[in-house]
Structure formats: C-alpha cells, structure tokens
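User: Structure with NAP, tokens only please.
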Amino acid sequence: MSEQKKYPNFDLTGKVAIITGAARGLGKACALALANAGADIGLGLRDITTAKDLEQEIKTMGRKVIRLQMDVSSLQQISESVEIMVKKFGKIDILVNNVGVAPDNPAEKVTEADFDHTINLNLKGTFFTAQAVGKQMIKQGSGRIINMSSQAGFIALEDESIYCMTKAAINHLTKNLASEWAKYNINVNAVAPTFIETPGTKPWLDDKDFRQGVLDRIPLGRIGKPMEVAGAVVFLASDASSLITGDIMLIDGGWTTR
Ligand SMILES: NC(=O)c1ccc[n+]([C@@H]2O[C@H](COP(=O)([O-])OP(=O)(O)OC[C@H]3O[C@@H](n4cnc5c(N)ncnc54)[C@H](OP(=O)(O)O)[C@@H]3O)[C@@H](O)[C@H]2O)c1
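Assistant:
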C-alpha cells in the first residue's frame, strides 16, 4: 500500500492495557472500550474482591483479563500490579491513569486531611503509577499513557479548589512526561472531561438545581456519558494518534469555549 493509503489504525488487537480505578465509572468504561477495540486488560482495583462481573464481561468479549489489587495510595501495590501484568502478558502497551477523588469543600473549609487525601490519590498515585508502568514501557521502547484530567484543570469550579489544583498539575505532569519519555517512544496524553454520569457524580447530579446549573454551562446541552470519554481514550491508545503527545484533550461539550 502506498504511504498515502496507510489508513489510520484504531485496532488494539494484541495490545495490553492496565486501567486504574477500573471497578466503576470512567475506569470501567475505558476497560470495556479498550477490550472492545481488541486489547487484553488488567483491571486495577482498590479492592480485588470487586469487579467480578466486569471481568466476566471482558472475557465474554474474547479478551484476556486479570483483576489486580491496586490501591494507588500504595506504591507497593502499584509495583506488584505491574509485575503481575508483565508476568501474565509479557508487556504493558497502554496505561489509563484514571483514579481521582473530588472533595467538595469551600476553600476556607478544606481540612488538612482533605488536602492530603486528594494530593495522595490524584497526584502521588497518578505520578507513581506512571513511573512504575513507564519503567516497563522504557524497557519495551514503546507505550501509551493516558492520564485522567478534567475540565477542572482549566477552569475554576466552585468549592473544588484542591481538586482543580490537582487536575491542573496532572495537565502539566502530562506535558513533562511526554517531553521526557518521547525518546523512548512513549506518548503521554490526558483527557479532560466535563461532568459525566458516573457513580461518583451521581450525588451531585441528582440535585436538580446543581444539574441545571451544569447543563446551562454546556453548549451541547447535556451531561456526558462514560463511553464518550472512553472513545477518546481508545483513540489516544491507538496507532491513529501516533503523532499526538503532551496533549490534554477536552471532552467538555464546549463548557470551556465560553
Ligand atoms: N465523572 C466525572 O464527571 C468526571 C469529570 C472529569 C474527570 N473525572 C475524573 O475521572 C476519574 C474517575 O471518575 P469517576 O466519576 O468515574 O469516579 P467514580 O465513579 O467515583 O469511580 C472511581 C473509581 O476509582 C476507584 N478508586 C478510588 N480510590 C482508589 C484507590 N485509592 N485506588 C484504586 N482505585 C480507587 C473506586 O474504587 P471503588 O469502586 O472500590 O470505590 C472507583 O471504582 C477521576 O480521576 C475523576 O476526577 C470524572
């Protein structure tokens, strides 16, 4: 086929992906979407006794899958999970660095415990998961890392100062890692969603006034679905995005255009 006719390839057959916080919400959607695109899957779980249904669903799709005890506040569990993945699959091609928490507190009421917990999971967990998987990808000479940012990394959301701060930091970390690891053929990008219907956002979005306030800010006029984020993750994991690195892809229905 001539160079011009090498069409973009979205197929992930033969690829191996690990997803943190995979039990529900965006992590679960990413795991299913990557499996649907052909990848074998490691489910990073805060509690390994969860996600048995998800494991079965992925098996039914014809993919290999493993559940991993991977609380990202434990550097030991992170490194053990990477070891288990490499033992089972021989490599890791894709990391979806998804875990994040969002305490809802006016800045003047944020406690030290809130602050430490959020930094610990959103920043320390994201960094050291990228480091542990990155070391393996450096050995392989290839890899894709997709960090879970948020529109909150671009704009100020009310009562979310520490969350916004960590997502802005993830954006910058994404650029740092992209720049540093380009020489190893590792692409590092992030996705930055608006409000998406997940178990995590349900308590907020169930509040009619809050929901209307969100809808009023989204030009496309609706709350997002997890698969609308997972679609971008599959693209960034695929060969079709080979020249993209250090990008933070907004998936915000246009929120940040106004
Ligand atoms: N949903 C949105 O509107 C939205 C928008 C922008 C960005 N995001 C980002 O997307 C990511 C996922 O959000 P979500 O709405 O899908 O969240 P979610 O519904 O609350 O799910 C979070 C998942 O992360 C897991 N988790 C929590 N702490 C963990 C830990 N220490 N180690 C490993 N796993 C842990 C949870 O495990 P258990 O099930 O065991 O509790 C759960 O499965 C977060 O980074 C969030 O900031 C979400």
